[in-house]
Structures
1.
Amino acid sequence: MSRPKSKIKLAWVAGVIIGGVSLGGCSVEKARTLQGAAVQFKTESLAAIDAIDAMRKRELEPPARSQAEMRQSFINRILNSKVEINSTVIDLAIDPFQPPKVAEWDDFIIDLRNQYEGFSSIFDKLNSGSMISRQEAQKSAEYAKTLTVQMALLADAISKNPPMLTQYRGGAIVRFRKLRQEYQTVLSKIKNGTGTETLQQLNQRKSDLENQAGEMMGQWQEIKQEEQRILEATVAQCTKAAIMGKELIEVANRYDNLDIAQLNTLIPRILTTASAFTGRDYTSLKLKATGMVSQIQTDPFWSGVTTKLLNRANNAAASRSQIQVALPSDPTLPLRNR
Amino acid sequence: MPDQNRLFLQHAAHLLNELEIRYLEADFDEQVYLKDDLDQAMSDFSKAKLAILKKTVTCTSEDVKQMRQLRQRMSNAPNFPQIVSTIASFASFVRSRFL
């Protein structure tokens, strides 16, 4: 596909809007059409960032507990403990499953949000009636392209590295292990005729435990379904933002050659196409995410930004690959003093 | 060719999962003993995942092999000192190689 080479044409919507404002009513209308789409792009992208943030938090968080459960567990823990009671121990007894804060993730999410703020501030300026410089417009265009590529790369990376709700799984596995132990004890009592319970009582307990195992199978499947739901929702939202950004930027790049009627057809079509990405058909969504990464790597219009981002990543990876860490061959280490 | 990043994260997630199971099965005094290490392991896992998602890390087959060994060591750890020792190895490996 041939593309205009003029630098200013690469300046995203803001650049288009500068031209539009100076050209009269029809062009202003064109510019406003793109501005509306750009706002939608920002909204979808911020939703994608929220989805990524939620995904990484869900991956470490524990299952919810009721206030009554928390209270009873606290009482059991604190009254049966032997450790010295201090404020840390009390907090831990109230909630021993609270995951740690991971500053690197917080910084990453803040940085992504800031980039969108930088991108959108240009439009706030336009709405307030201020002049927008060509430099600002070009900066905005670079933001938009970088953000689009970032979203595409993240969608692909997340689809290849799905989330695992480790605390949910852990809790379920512990319950499975306890149930199996109890079941096998009951079986042993039935077989050997030991204990104080009657055979009928033991058979009833055996039946109850079998029912519990069946229910727990359902709970396990729910955990797996929830993991899949989080994966699909996150990949869908990132892909949606990336596709919307890519198509809108490409339209903005052809802006001079499009009249208002064409824009009014193209923009809603882009928005409608993007809104169809719900994650319900995950196989095709995953293919779309992977396909988009190939596209932005090979398309000359996108490959510059993509290569820049990937090179930055590859350089970081290369510097790390120099480091090799040997694991200790003997895993038995002395008890630490704590 | 299998995706080394994905395999690495799978082993790391299962190691973390096994650690959480040990923590859940522990009594409260033992949980007090383990909590800092559990937090450290969770944090390191999450940072490694971020590095992989940002593509600032490319896992090698050697990384996958080491993480698989650590996962097995965690699964087979018979007592808390060995669990703690495995977490220390995990933290050292992840931090030096990935963070």
2.
Amino acid sequence: MKYIEQDIKMYIQEKEYIDTAIIPLVPYAIHDDQEMVLTSFQQELMNLYSHQLEQRLKGRIFLFPVYTYLKNSLIDNEIERINHVIQEVKKQPFNEVFLLTFDKQWRKQSSSIEGELVWLPAIKSGNLQSNEVREVIRSQIIDIEELIKESWS
Amino acid sequence: MSNKKNNQVSRRQFLNYTLTGVGGFMGAALIAPMVGFAVDPLLKGEKSGDFVYVLDVDEITETPQKVSFQVDQTDGWYESKVEKNAFVFYDSNGDILALSPVCTHLGCTVDWATEKEDEFFCPCHDGRYNAEGENIAGTPPTEPLHEYTFKVEEGKLYLSPETHARGGA
């Protein structure tokens, strides 16, 4: 399910079946040109990953709107905000909350986050249409899918 | 003079008629393309007639094979390429069947023979379908897997991007 009207209406009726939340954590940069290039590419990549994942497991996962923050802001300050989001999400209720990110900064803090952090190694910039890149992405998506399915069993 | 006036169009009337006429044409020329653009997505309609080649008929077996193909999808203004998947196989009557992998419960993607050898299985809520794609009673799905319209030409199988529910299953 996605955060669009059509899916939300279905979600409200079928809440008992949709128990897993996905929140992509996506940084963006303004302070540095190089960082802008990097984060924008990762943003595109995350969009691809999360939508593919949503498509494959549509009936049980809920893809929330992207959680964004400035790349050069202190990650410690983000912990409180993301935990607040997670608490609200769990009230719905959602049993599992997965946070997807390419940003390494979160890893050090993973113990203080109230959701399941899934850090993915990002491929370097490249053509998202090329077959090799697609193959890499496909296998990574299958890995995440397995991880999510494990939490269900 | 008065007789003449009855039969003839006066200068004033003539100008009125011609200006209205010409003005009308000019207005139409301006507005028609605008209306055209405004309803453009409606005029194009669904491109359901576009069949896409997926595989040769002699490659089809009795075991479902997963094939993927790309179609252009238009959501109003937004056009994008979308990858679609299908399970293609011969059913027990020897007819070709091209099933959509979208679970009829809540739309997850089902897989063939992951849980049981000859069943389709949905990982989300353990939905099961038999080898013909019919939902197994007691599992969440309420109807059989949907089917793609297909056509065979010169030994090649083409699928339409549209799927439909299967009757009488």
3.
Amino acid sequence: MQSIPLQHKYLRLFIEGEQGLIFCQQRHSLFRLPPLSIALILGLDSGVGRSECLNQVSRASGLALPEIEPAMDEVWDLYHLASSNSLPRSPQSKSANQPTFTGSLSRSTADITSVASSQSSMQTIHYRDGLYFEVLPFKSATQKKTLSVENQGIAPCSESFVTIDFGSIAFRIECQDSDFREMLLALFDRYIRDDNLIRAPVTVQFQIQSVGIEENNDPQFQKHYRMLSQQRIVAHEITFSELMPTIIERMQILTFQLSAFRFCYHGAALIKDQQLLLLPGKSGVGKSTLTAYLATKGYQVCSDEMIVLDDDFNVLNLPAPLAIKSGAWSVLQAYYPQLAEQPVWQHKDGRKLKYVWPQSMLPNAGKVNSASHWCNFQSADIIAPNYQNERPLQHEQNNEQNNKGNMPDSLSANFSSFSVIDMLNLVVAGGYQVGKELSATDVIDLIGFFETIRRGQLSYSSNEAAFHFLSSNTNGKN
Amino acid sequence: MNKNNQAQENSKNDELTPEQARRQFMKKYGKLAAVTPIAVTALMTPKTSAAPKSCKEHQGNKHCVNSASSGFN
């Protein structure tokens, strides 16, 4: 990755191969640039006007002006909005009333379109806005003081409460539904604490309430619930089977948001022999199944859903049971016999799941709980899982590494290296959060972190194949 | 860890002048423009930063198409 110094003092340009990244300091935003946009940015930065820049690029490329102008409209706004409090429209802009950003990330496309069309919205949105309300008091300058008094004022203990203590944060869940309460107690068995033994400096109080059941005599009526956190409704119209996923997701998010996190991405994080393995990606690509399998092969699971990184790129140990989707139950049954007895829950998208704990996340009974903490490591890989669902893998000649050789198909896996930009694109597509306003230093450090680790996508037709690849292709560099 | 310092050092060593980069890309992009997407894409912005969830709207997740009225915040 090359850094290109610009005259524009609020933009930072990085180039990798044929693509670029540009960081807008004023907007704390990072964009991916195709080659044409890079050339246009550099042209504008040389001080020439729009027409001259277009002509230069047209002459050099052989492209006609109409082919370049849409890209110029984007770049013009990007370049000038980065330093101005006003909203200069490009003089020949065709994008004033129609989106011209057509990138592959739908949510990002929508965002950047609104960047160009709505200055006021960008001025009022901050990374901090993504923090849950429970966390905001602790992210202020008086964090320590607030933390120290937070556990005061807890309601008296009663049988309707379940208290789960993860060390850095505890959750005190009030639930009148005895069935669900028993399920909570069973699932979080090792993390259950008496109220007077809570060690976490912060306690968040949840309430689970049934809604409207008393007035309804229809036997087909499905009981619904709502969830309150610190006495505010945070989820409603939840069915019984959605209760556990709802609570666990909120517990995970609050745990990482309360930490000193710098970046959080959707994915799993595991460690074996001081080597960190990050498995990013969108939901449904096989992360949890592979994580559960690797957990039986000596990997310590740091987290299943969220890759949380601090200032030094240590990874947060985020205790939560693994959510095993229905398609993987039979695959993992041999490794997790307890799956057969676990209740079936349901994500809000309809996918059914069961929860199991990886052994490495279970604290020893009776010992001090310090479940949530930062894990250091010597080297790291970031590998996007791509489960091929038993189809034979197509082995491409240009793949850097594969373990096909004389292996049976069940143990074959293909690894394709990714550029830093491609990896970053994939990682953010799964979801991400930045802990504070994104700075140029953050971007440089993030690029540096990605540069130093092995990056790519692993296509595999079985978990055994993925494990075999990982075991035989360890990354020795730091 | 020294990853950050190492990366910063690498970046310094790899710096091109704007003029060098401009010439390089003027030559390159003509053929590239035909085979690469022409649009700028936002990677990380305040608006798109949100707690990663297993299911989130507008994330291209095939499982999350009809979860608009789930009531989750």
4.
Amino acid sequence: MQKKTLTRLLSVFLFVVSFNMTAEVTTEGEGSKDLKTEIKEYISHHLLDSYDFNLYSHDDENGEHQYIGFPLPVIIYDDGLKVFSSSKLKHDKGVAEVDGNYYKSYHGKLYKTNAAGELTYDEDHHPEGRIHADFSITKNVFTILVVSLLIFLMFSNMAKHYKKGPMPKGFGRALEPIILYIRNDIAIPNIGEKKYKRYMPYLLTVFFFVWIINLLGLTPLGINVTNNIAVTLGLALITYLLTTFTANKNYWKHVFWMPGVPWPMKIILAPIELLGTIIKPFSLMIRLYANITAGHIVLMSIIGLMFIFENWLGSSLSFLLAFALSLLELLVAALQAYIFTMLSALYFGAAVEEHHDAH
Amino acid sequence: MDKLINEFSFGLFFWMLLIFILLVILLRKFAWKPILEAIETREDGIKGALDSAEKAKLEMLNLQSDNEKLLQEARAERESMMKEAREIKSKMVSDAKEEAQAEANKIIANAQIAIESEKKAAVAELKDQVASLSLEIATKVVKDELSNSDKQLKLVKDLLNDATLN
């Protein structure tokens, strides 16, 4: 999979290079630069979380930018708990006044400002006054909530059908083979017949959660959750904690005092193995994040190309490419969910593996 | 990396963990446990049904071989019964033959005895008759002879001789 990530990043790089090349060629056109900057901003904006649920935006006949969507609650802790609607932030353009304090959102983050809403920058060009205790129900949090609710309704409903008879009904018929696949081909071979049951709830939940949320990212609703490092960190952290807290003596023995190697090697191996326990979930986090981010950037860039070419050949080629990539992303959505589940199962399996004399 | 750290949102991380852990716990109770249990029960049921079908098949085979055995036994019994009957028949026939033979022999022996005694009786009667006839003849002869005394004497003499000879 590292290879795949690499290919992705390479294609992004290539795209950026080719993008700059076309930029040089087409500078003569008035406003084409504006379009390109707009597309670039649009993509970077899409990749970020936002305080309101914005489906799409357009310029109306008066030249004003109109947003279609709905506001979400902003919850922060800054000299006491403060809750206000994100409509006050006016899509990064306005300044929200709450209890005499002024807040402004900028690139998906909230900053404390003066009444005019001017941001001050530090020497690294980062805006100052970031609100860290920010528990807002952002677009991503809202999506996670909706997806969780959807998954819960889907599977609790499916479970009800089993009370009536041994066979699933309706959509459950399509879901059961996937559940069986996760049990028979992911959990049992990696964890073992005896101990797999304990991990099944997590493995099943993580698979369906990642898959559905990845698929939602491919809809034109502009939802993008798994390309957020905080989300993938959350998932990877649970895998790490489950591995660490359910591990048996044999696992820790292999980490700290590797059997079957001479003692100087044991001392060298211990820190490496200990680091490995953290690198494993870390790679889970980065893999999911990078794959989805790269996929979104490439796909959106190619869609953006259609508007930049503005001729029937280039635009239709871009369209075909975007279509093919969408199909690929559909596969990647399922594949990344599968890989996350598969590797989690593998780590759990290593944690509960019984001692073998062969070592 | 700097961008990643800058982009990291603690709030999102917090909500993500909270919602996801809650989701796992709720799904475990209301979805995964009943679903997996139902699937397992179903799989066990299928396995049990297959096992019992296999067992029934074996039993059928056993029954069939039992039937075959019974049939064979019956056939053997019939065979032995027939044989016995045949033996009895031949024995009866030979017995009857022997008995008949013995009876016949007896009858023949009896008949021979009877014939012998009849013969003896007939011979005795013949002797009596011969005696009386001879007496009559003798009487007539004697009567005739006695008219001559010499002849009488001679006759007595001859008779006496004959008597001793007889």
